[in-house]
Amino acid sequence: MSRVVKKRKLDEIRQDRLYFDSYSDVTIHEEMIADHVRTNTYRTAILKNSESVRGKVVLDVGAGTGVLSIFCAQAGAKKVYAVEACSIADQAQITVKHNNMEDRIEVIRGTVETVDLPETVDVIVSEWMGYALLHESMLNSVLYARDKWLKPDGIILPSKAELYITPVIDPVVEDRLHFWYTVKDQYGVDMSCMSGFARKCIMNSDITVSSVTCEDVLSHPARFAELDLHSVTPEELRSVKGQFRCESFGSSAVNAFCVYFTVTFPCPDSTAPLVLSTSPCKPETHWKQAVLYLDAPVEVVQDTPITGEVRMYPSEENARHICIHVDYSIGEQKRQSKTFSIPDWSSEAQP
Fold it and tell me: Quick check: is 127 catalytic?
């Protein structure tokens, strides 16, 4: 084995360790379960699919504290395999026992790629979504479970994911940039020369995870990608891309793009499926939105076309981290390009 290949393998092992370690603390589980939109949508979806769950075998991929497994048992599942790779699996076992469900829910410590189940399953449930949908890339584990353990006529909850983009104005950023022009009036020192430096620092290439208000959205959203969990392949996840076109609502300044996602659950007894949305115009979730700042704001007027292409792909430095590349034109402006990523703070903290 070459040293390069060996180093890559060691890096992958370290990346996985850092990822799973992040789920060993109570804080992240508190945040997820306290997210009412997230948790209640999953509970509702499982109960609405009770006919497909009752008396069936369920696999919960990345079970965490086991709350989704318990929802499945409450919906009548005959057996639930709650697979969890990190130490929170111990707490899941305690929670299952505390709810008197140890006869139907089996907590299995390990990754879904390495555990061995005694049977195939009728249902896969998983809350796999990360920031901008694909950050942390847990979807690959769901697809592995689908291909290895799901029966041909089995169901996946959720069954579909969609990605959207829309131009926005972040007034906080504009206020921060304008601040440097106010220093002279306050303190007698002209610091307007700091504005350019501040713009480079603030409107950088980081994917900023923050809440966007509906009032700051400048157009109808454009869907640029759709993932069918019954058919999408791991290879396709290596480059998720699509075209977009928006038209601005009115006169404003575009200083960022907002990327968000929805996931859809089938509802056999309802005319409409159940959708979990992270849109800025819907109730806030812990995922918030992914904000991609332009290098400089661009003025738009009513119906100014904003077009381009988005491509999402795993980072070369850490396959669990997502990069977003946007090619775009705003009005008559020539084509621009910018690549964004979520900073890997863990790499700086580790030897």
Answer: yes
